[in-house]
Amino acid sequence: MRYMPSTWITVLVLVLLAHQINISFACIGVCYGLNGDNLPSPKDVIELYKRSQIQRIRIFEPLPEVLEALRGSNLLVTLGMRNEDITNIAASQEAANDWVNTHLVPYKIDVAFRYVTVGNEVIPGPLANYVTKAMNNTWNAIVSNGLDRVRVTTVVPANALGVSYPPSAGAFSDEVLGAMTDVATILYYTHAPLMINVYPYFAYASNPEEIPLDYALLNSNLQTVTVDGELNYNNLFDAMVDAFNTALEKINMGDVYVFISETGWPSAGNEPYTSIENARVYNTNVKKHIHDQVGTPRRPGRMLDTFFFAMFNENLKPAGVEQNFGLFYPDMSPVYPLD
Ligand SMILES: *[C@@H]1O[C@H](CO)[C@@H](O)[C@H](O)[C@H]1NC(C)=O
């Protein structure tokens, strides 16, 4: 009996700890793209993240003014390595050390780096076979600087899959099979997730006759369930994520988590498929889906950290939908509320 109190304290501590882990994992992130000539200063942008209670930020390259602005912000940072740097860093441990020494080490005390993404959508492509080596060299540099809570990964687009439907048939294309097997192997050994870009919008917009809008927007209802073997899908987002999970299983890497490095819906540029309302509904539903931690039918309950694309409408991107993915206008007013 006299041990009861300490048992209860242990339980309480564990519950509190779990709650805290929960919070730090289930939070929403937003990609901070800078392809605009009318965007606010990085300092103002980081303040906007904090005001908007966005806890995670993904940046595509290590810009010093952005890293400076992140100091002391407590935002959890995913930092991208530029695609142009991959071959050098794959070729030389020293180049990887330099990269980490330049872009992480000077900020490590007051910037909360969580992930480094080695390349953005380079698999498939001519750099695909350099990714694993570059990841490994970067990981070695990170570990030798005592930064090993930072995980090293890469970002792959939907077209890394040769088959993506139904989800249970998901498979990497022959072209990327070797590269993805190597990448998944290093992810597995370093306990890092694979980052994937998932855009139900593009699937829907290219095939609106066959894909119900509600299915693409995660407006789940019984009319829009698709059956895949023993699993039922009530939204396209889950189906797209699980196609990757199946593809990983097929290379014996089903234990590697997938996280979402980008998802979103443009608010303009291709009416009627794009609208402020569709964008609002999609992002609100994804946010709820992630917060609920229901996982996907193939990975029930599994964490699914997600970044929305993007913080701002970016006027230097190609005209049309690409300029209209922002949650905010460049003047920092919201395009729509994200509840
Ligand atoms: C990763 O780096 C370590 C240390 O240099 C090396 O022993 C290992 O073979 C490398 N692995 C890959 C997949 O390159």
TrEMBL record:
Which Pfam family is an annotated match for this chain, by its short name?
Glyco_hydro_17
Keywords, comma-separated and alphabetical:
Glycosidase, Hydrolase, Signal
State the superkingdom. Eukaryota
Secretion signal span: 1-26
Alphabetical list of SUPFAM superfamilies matching this protein:
(Trans)glycosidases
The GO terms this record gives for MF are: hydrolase activity, hydrolyzing O-glycosyl compounds
Task: For this entry, list what GO says about its biological process.
Answer: carbohydrate metabolic process
InterPro entries per UniProt: GH (IPR017853), Glyco_hydro_17 (IPR000490), Glyco_hydro_17_plant (IPR044965)
Q: Does the keyword Iron-sulfur apply?
A: no
Q: Does the keyword ATP-binding apply?
A: no
PROSITE patterns the UniProt entry points to: GLYCOSYL_HYDROL_F17, PROKAR_LIPOPROTEIN
Which protein family is named in the record? Belongs to the glycosyl hydrolase 17 family.
Report what the protein is called. Answer: Glucan endo-1,3-beta-D-glucosidase
Organism, by scientific name, is Aquilegia coerulea (Rocky mountain columbine)
* Taxonomic path: Eukaryota, Viridiplantae, Streptophyta, Embryophyta, Tracheophyta
